[in-house]
Amino acid sequence: QVQLVESGGGLVQAGNSLRLSCAASGRTLSNYAMGWFRQAPGKEREFVADITRTAIYTYYADSVKGRFTVSRDNVKNTVYLQMNSLKPEDTAVYYCAAQLWTLDRSGTNNPYWGKGTLVTVSS
């Protein structure tokens, strides 16, 4: 059993930055791939970014590549999403997800999810 809690969301102006955190409990994250998903108002949930268990590789959706950075600290049992150059279309509830070894980027097979944190980007 893994519990994930996101934090760091809020209201920001376009062009500014925000850093999201996902704190895990119940298990250490060393053997888990971690990722971020988001769901905008009236939209389906979409993949944002993920990171391998050793943090050697990262992968980003085209919509955020070059602006967002995912990182992890296995000692602190925390995963981060640094969001720069935010756009109004980034407005969404952001969810943290975890899966042993490899994350499912479709979002359908990941057993552990946080409750989400809301990011609102004003123009």
Give a brief description.
By secondary structure, the protein is mainly β. The chain is built from no helices and 11 strands.
Task: Provide the β-strand percentage band.
Answer: over 45%
Q: What characteristic shape results from the CA principal axes? A: globular
Counted by DSSP, the helix tally is 0
Helix content: under 10%
Quantity of strands, as a count:
11
Mean pLDDT: 94
What radius of gyration results from the CA coordinates?
A: 13 Å
Low-confidence stretches: none
Q: The biggest beta sheet, please?
A: 7 strands, mixed
Compute the separation of the termini in Å: 40 Å
SS class = mainly beta
Order of helices and strands: EEEEEEEEEEE
Description:
This protein has 123 residues and is mainly β. It is built from no helices and 11 strands. It has strands at residues 3-7, 10-13, 18-25, 32-39, 46-51, 58-60, 68-73, 78-83, 92-100, 112-113, 117-122. Strand 7 (68-73) and strand 8 (78-83) form a beta hairpin. The chain is globular.
